[in-house]
Amino acid sequence: MNETIKTILTRKSIRSYKEEQISDSDLELLIDAGIHAPTGGNSQSWNFTVIQNKEKLLELNRLVKESFAELIVDENTYRSKRAGKISSQQETYSFYYNAPTLILVSNAREYSNAMADCSAAIENIMLAGKSLGLGSCWINQLTWFCDEEKVRATLTHYGIPENYIVCGGVALGYCASNTDKLVPRKKADVNIIR
Ligand SMILES: Cc1cc2nc3c(=O)[nH]c(=O)nc-3n(C[C@H](O)[C@H](O)[C@H](O)COP(=O)(O)O)c2cc1C
Fold first, then answer.
1. Mutate to test the pocket of ligand 1, among 97, 115, 138 (most ligand atoms within 8 A of CB)
2. Whole-angstrom Cα distance, residue 139 to residue 110?
3. How far apart are CA 24 and CA 21, in angstroms?
4. pLDDT tens per residue, range 131-183
5. DSSP characters for 46-115?
6. Domain 24-173: which topology?
7. Does residue 93's CB lie within 6 angstroms of at least one atom of ligand 1?
8. Do 33 and 26 meet the contact criterion of CB atoms below 8 Å apart?
9. C-beta of 165 in contact with ligand 1 (< 6 A)
10. pTM beyond 0.90, yes or no
11. Listed residue (94, 173, 60) closest to 126, CA to CA
């Protein structure tokens, strides 16, 4: 099996990180991997916001906790959002799993490929991370809450344009434990028409 396929097949979401920060050279490679993802019409209109400041990450965590507290859920609410509301009430809650680096990938709200382009970039970043010995996890909370007033004010302060939405985030760092397991895949429906 070649290294690329091995990287793809062994990547898994990591939810426990060491405090040690990733190197600037690795960060540069990760962003480079991100921007080498394909984009609709070669748009490349994405914005990458890298947050490595512990205080700023904790401030975002506080805002996410507040947003969950105000969120009204019912049985029709997306399962992960309902679960997030419950876990956010814990003292130790960290939506980015205390990872030392959080990358937010945002794009123009009105651009129809915003989510697709950013998702391709995020996957590239996660796979590049895996190849560099880093763990990662997709982080969705700021996609849900980027338009909450206080969250938006903070994101604006971090340079995300007002007309951009957070399409996704990635937590990155060195894995703290080996407890995150490869999640088995369901058999996909594949129809090959020849
Ligand atoms: C769009 C999207 C949003 C996700 N959001 C979160 C999240 O907010 N927090 C989290 O822990 N995992 C999140 N995940 C990771 C999934 O839970 C994970 O990919 C899935 O359980 C399969 O596990 P694996 O990544 O280890 O293969 C997200 C994944 C995707 C694609």
1. 138
2. 22
3. 9
4. 999 999 999 999 999 999 999 999 999 999 999 999 999 999 999 988 888 99
5. -EEEEE--HHHHHHHHHHHHHHHHH----TTS-HHHHHHHHHTTSTT--TTTT-SEEEEEEEETT-TTHH
6. NADH Oxidase (3.40.109)
7. no
8. no
9. no
10. yes
11. 173
At residue 64's C-alpha, the angle toward residues 162 and 45, to 5°, is 30
Distance separating alpha carbons of residues 154 and 82, to the nearest angstrom: 24
Helix (H, G, I), strand (E, B) or coil at 165: strand
Q: Where are the domains of the chain?
A: 24-173
**Paired tokens of 80:** 């992960």
Query: Does 113 contact ligand 1 (Cβ within 6 A)?
Result: no
Between CA 1 and CA 43 the distance in angstroms is 34
SS3 content of the chain, % helix, strand, coil (to 5): 40, 15, 40
